[in-house]
Amino acid sequence: MDTFYVTTPIYYVNDVPHIGHTYTTLAADTIARWKRLAGADVFFLTGTDEHGVNIERRAREAGVSPQAWVDEIAPKWQALWKRLGISNDDFIRTTEPRHIRVAQNLFQKAYDRGAIYKGTYEGWYCPSCEAFYAEEELLEGQLCPIHKRRVEWTAEENYLFRLSQYRDWILRKLEQEPLFLQPETQRNEMLSLVRGGLRDLAVSRLSVKWGIPVPFDPAQTIYVWVEALINYVTAIGYLDNPERYNRFWPHVHHLVGRDINRFHSVIWPCFLEAAGLPSPKQVWAHGFWTVEGEKMSKTRGNFIDPIAEITRLAEVSGAQWEVAADAFRYTLLREVPFGQDGDYSHAALIHRFNADLANDFGNLLNRALPLVDRHFGGQIPPSGPPEGPDGGLRKAAEEVLGAADRRIGTFDFTRGLAEIWRFLGVANKYIDEAAPWSALKARNSPRAGAILYNTLEALRIATILLTPVLPAATQRVWEQLGISTPLASQRLDDARRWGGLPAGTRIRPGPPLFPRIEARSDRQATLLAGGGAGARRASTGAAPARAAGSTRAAGSPTPVSSRGGTEMGEITIEEFNKVDLRIAEVLEVKRVAGADKLLALVVRIGQETRTVVAGIAQQYAPEALIGRKIVVVANLQPRKLRGVESQGMLLAANDGDRPVLLAPDQDVPSGARVS
Ligand code: MSP
């Protein structure tokens, strides 16, 4: 049996949880659930980092003791994870006696082995990071690179760790074990840091009282960063459960943000080596989230509170709260490749909710179940001999598991999910092509039944594969399918075998899980306009949407003549080919000030984001357009309309005065050519 241990950073208790913290935890939860699904023996740890000068200061400001302060805040983190359905096996607090014991034990071991000595440490110190910085790391020669606050020149008599002596050792490790630190960009950064040389590190503080005493000199406390890292060995029982420690430690994967990478991939393995313990198996340093192109900060007030975001999505869509939480998790993991920076926006969440979850996943259920209900007495019909498109569906089902496992199992959530969605695409296409309604019309009930069986069997497989990402929604799908074996007991192997859906199962159809977000009431429209949720890749999203051209529907609505094109004179195919028609996906829609017919649509065409202005405001509510795929002329000269530059024109049929948008008949990726 595989063994897998995954950790999140332990969060500072004085921080307000935001999307950054939530992201690490959701990623860790997803991989933990995936490995459990694969049958591994899993341990998943998170917790809180409760010592240090910042916490001491915060408590003083609040007029309470540090212990009272941390006791008040730590449960709030626990409650947040509970609300988000996080499946951690333990929650460690660094003020717990079990941790104090292990921190002192390892510190003593490193000291006994000669890796810690008494000296004076002087340097540029950032109190917020609780870290010293080398001169060349400072911004403008005096600012902390993380907090942009002025660093302080600090001299202290304390204990130092001989980090410099481990420089060659860690360099070799980073060079020879590429998987030890991922992604590659982060590995390269650490390689150049280490190649530049490592200085000994002050690992105790005389001035900080709120910490764990150095065992051989209790006037000093252990430097909070070294102490905090030790939580990872404490929790699995380094001192109190050696069997469990030995089982899990060789398989530990630390998930961290890139700002704290060097602590995990350089200092931590060196310290462990000094104390005689093996290095972690892997460190994964993910990217940073910005919000609408800006760095999140307390002063800007643009912190994204995950609970508020999910609540808003639930309200706007009418989905259950837990299902909205799944959509939030899915969007974060799907939009930005793990390891890259990403930008957070409202539009992408709505788009993913509508297009991926409502259309591709939810709809498969909503298309098949009513037919089973109406024509098969609510019982899943038996499968039949394979015909026509059946083989293709089955083949896709057999391939998706391996493809998803290769990706998700190695932290490539984005591509793993894309594989599952490719499979859902095949299943949707299957039901379209196999057309059970036609078989029913032809009174070929066994064939209609077989098609429905196959569709629902594909859905069963996708549902199992999606449990790590959509834990609540998949549970609801499972209930609607009526399968009596609990979803929680399913393993990847159950998704490997075609035919696992028991014919005769009584289905239990329910309301749509992902009600499409449309402008159904003024209140919903207001909530949507309120902005907030969602994510998009920095590459397409961070830059302001490119300025833009004109639309025929806007000024002169003559998109397609109902009498055909000849009255306009003939054109050659070469002339027609000069028009670059593309599928575009609507990300955001705004009204154009001072023009009651115009909407400005921010659309994605492949990798590009543009604004297209169109005269459709009287027929289409802005919210109803988000997530839709439309057709645009992509190579039209830009034109300014009422002060808004439009680049491109959308296509609409012209029904009298009423423009009717053209849309692809099936889902096609944005950027696809139309000819
Ligand atoms: N207490 C330390 C970790 C000690 S681990 C032994 C700490 N805590 S933290 O609460 O400040 O941050 C925890 C995590 O949140 C880090 O992984 C950090 O990278 C992540 N993020 C904070 N802001 C972030 C973004 N804007 N985007 C993505 N992740 C970010 O550091």
Output the keywords.
alpha+beta; globular; 675 residues; six-stranded antiparallel sheet; six-stranded parallel sheet
List the helices and strands and how they pair.
Elements: E1 3-12, H1 19-37, E2 41-49, H2 53-62, H3 66-83, E3 90-93, H4 97-112, E4 116-126, E5 131-133, E6 152-161, H5 167-176, E7 181-182, H6 184-195, E8 201-202, E9 204-205, E10 213-214, E11 217-222, H7 224-229, H8 231-234, H9 242-248, E12 252-257, H10 261-275, E13 282-286, E14 289-291, E15 294-295, H11 306-317, H12 321-335, E16 342-344, H13 346-375, H14 390-408, H15 413-434, H16 436-441, H17 445-466, H18 471-481, H19 492-496, H20 522-529, E17 536-537, H21 538-541, H22 573-577, E18 581-591, E19 599-605, E20 608-614, H23 622-625, E21 629-633, E22 639-641, E23 644-646, E24 649-650, E25 652-655, E26 658-661, E27 673-674
Parallel strand pairs: 1-2, 1-12, 2-3, 7-13, 12-13, 14-16
Antiparallel strand pairs: 4-5, 4-6, 6-8, 9-11, 10-11, 14-15, 16-17, 18-19, 18-21, 18-27, 19-20, 21-24, 22-23, 25-26
Helix pairs in contact: 2-3, 4-10, 5-6, 11-12, 11-20, 12-13, 13-15, 13-17, 14-15, 14-17, 15-17, 17-18
Molecular structure report:
41% of the residues lie in helices and 19% in strands. The strands form seven sheets. It has a six-stranded parallel β-sheet with strand order 3-2-1-12-13-7, sandwiched between helices. Strands 18, 19, 20, 21, 24 and 27 form a six-stranded antiparallel β-sheet that branches. It has a four-stranded antiparallel β-sheet with strand order 5-4-6-8, covered by helices on one side. α14 packs antiparallel against α15. The protein starts with a strand and ends with a strand. The protein binds 5'-O-[(L-methionyl)-sulphamoyl]adenosine. 5'-O-[(L-methionyl)-sulphamoyl]adenosine is lined by residues 9-12, 15, 20-21, 23-24, 49, 228-229, 256-257, 259-260, 288-289, 296. Residues 9-12, 15, 20-21, 23-24, 49, 228-229, 256-257, 259-260, 288-289, 296 line the site of 5'-O-[(L-methionyl)-sulphamoyl]adenosine (MSP).
